[in-house]
Amino acid sequence: MITMKKKVVIRTSFTAVHCWPECPYEDVNYLRNPHRHEFHVTVKFDVSYNDRDIEFIRAKEEIDKHLRTNYHCKDLGRMSCEDIANEIMNKFGACFVSVFEDNENGAEIEQ
């Protein structure tokens, strides 16, 4: 019998401003200045059975509350997608987090 890994997946988004003041590339030097994105976030949690160790509706509510309080409509300074993903992973004990700018380019981290 094949052992399958089970995960619950939460997808959400928030709007914020950030910048990369140290951007060394002249062709994208606008990144040095504050600019707005809609950040798309995916968070995955390992679960061990089909009735879910983690109820994903409740988990999404917790994650959304955290994002509203700490990120939504805020200036994140030089915080990167990787920084945001790392913070979410550490805060919620997720096994995977991705953060994409405008649902196009971004970063993924996993344990």
Overall pLDDT: 95
User: Treating each run of at least 4 consecutive H or I residues as one helix, how many helices?
Assistant: 2
User: Approximately what portion of the residues adopt beta-strand conformation?
Assistant: 25-35%
CATH superfamily: 6-pyruvoyl tetrahydropterin synthase/QueD
Could you describe the largest sheet, including whether it forms a barrel?
A: 4 strands, antiparallel
Architecture, CATH level 2?
A: 2-Layer Sandwich
Report the count of strand segments: 4
- Major sheet strand order: 1-2-3-4
The CATH topology name reads Tetrahydropterin Synthase, Chain A
Work out the helicity level. Answer: 10-25%
Can you describe what's shown?
With about 110 residues, the protein is an alpha+beta fold. It has a single domain, classed as Tetrahydropterin Synthase, Chain A, CATH 3.30.479.10. Helices cover about 25% and strands about 35% of the residues. The chain is built from two helices and four strands. The chain has a four-stranded antiparallel sheet. It starts with 5 loop residues before the first strand and ends with a strand.
Topology:
Layout: E1 6-18, E2 35-47, H1 56-70, H2 81-92, E3 96-101, E4 105-110
Antiparallel strand pairs: 1-2, 2-3, 3-4
Which descriptors apply to this entry?
4 strands, alpha+beta, single chain, four-stranded antiparallel β-sheet, Tetrahydropterin Synthase, Chain A
